[in-house]
Write a structure and sequence with these properties.
Blueprint: E1 7-10, E2 25-28, H1 30-38, H2 43-58, E3 69-71, E4 78-84, E5 89-93, H3 95-99, E6 109-114, H4 119-141
Antiparallel strand pairs: 1-2, 2-6, 3-4, 4-5, 5-6
Helix pairs in contact: 2-4
């Protein structure tokens, strides 16, 4: 699995007619999303993921989010990736899409950005998502 692509960046372009809007989406492969949803984590394991993202992305890029990941229940799957909750800067999937995700689902899991006003914010969110995928793949292979 380590050489397989598990996500695709969707439409990272400034949106016409909307000043300073650099919205985008991330399309996570269904089989990877299901593996994450079905992999249960202890709260201490979830905290390790939080610390990795915080120390490698949030702090160096000067975002003050202490818990950048919002996990789906007690699983490895993340609902939302935050850079700044107070300013509404995040990347998230619809909870209902995650709840309905199963082997019979036709679609991948789509994450949409919110309140992304600059390329810096866009690339920072992409970095958070990419780091989570990177460490999640390694975790699943253990």
């Amino acid at each position: 699995m380590s050489n397989q692509f598990v996500y695709r960046l969707e439409e990272l372009v400034p949106r016409k007619g909307i000043k300073d809007n650099f919205g985008f989406g991330m399309n996570l492969k269904k089989d990877f999303a299901l593996r994450c949803k079905n992999r249960k984590l202890l709260s201490s394991e979830q905290q390790k993921f939080q610390d990795i993202i915080k120390n490698q992305i949030s702090i160096p890029l000067r975002y003050d989010e202490l818990n950048p990941l919002d996990f789906f229940e007690d699983s490895l799957l993340v609902i939302s990736f935050y850079l700044h909750r107070g300013n509404g800067l995040w990347l998230s999937a619809e909870r209902s899409s995650i709840e309905n995700l199963d082997e019979n689902s036709d679609n991948n899991l789509l994450y949409s950005s919110h309140n992304v006003d600059s390329t810096r914010e866009a690339y920072s969110l992409i970095s958070v998502f990419e780091r989570w995928v990177h460490y999640t793949k390694a975790f699943l292979e253990e």
